[in-house]
Description:
The chain has 174 residues and is mostly beta strands.
Amino acid sequence: LNNTSEFSICTVSANAGKDTGLCSGQSILLGSDSVAGTAYSWFPDSGLSNAHTAKPLLSLMNTGQSLLVKSYAVTATNVAGGCSASDTVVISVFPVPAANAGIDKSFTSGDTVHIGSSALLGNTYSWSPLAGIDDPNAANPALTLSNTGQNIQTVEYVVTLTNAANCSDMDTVK
């Protein structure tokens, strides 16, 4: 009597990647390198370059004012053996802040005006160029310019606002 048993072991692993955050409009790669003989399926597929690859590119927009949190799951299936494994990654999408350099100003040479807007807690500000600005890191700096010529001078100032998540936006004022 011959009592032999045959069985096969099916192995597969899934790796959705490390939980992470990104700014609205940025892209990141999810997952890990593909393994031969493995099929991949991501859910949901919104924002993914390809829902059937091991390492899709994810691009998401957050048009709101608060944090957007999305979970993506990958299922890896061993094509020959039929077994599967799943993993999930959590992506936090930070809104892009709205920089406000203020309205364009006209003023007399030597006068002081304020440009920008009220400061928002947790944001940093950076103005360029520095000429005439009392504090280039203020949300609403004082600006004093002198014109010794006969022609009207127009100077454009750019503010870069960066939030706590390191997402930034720029705006200009003349």
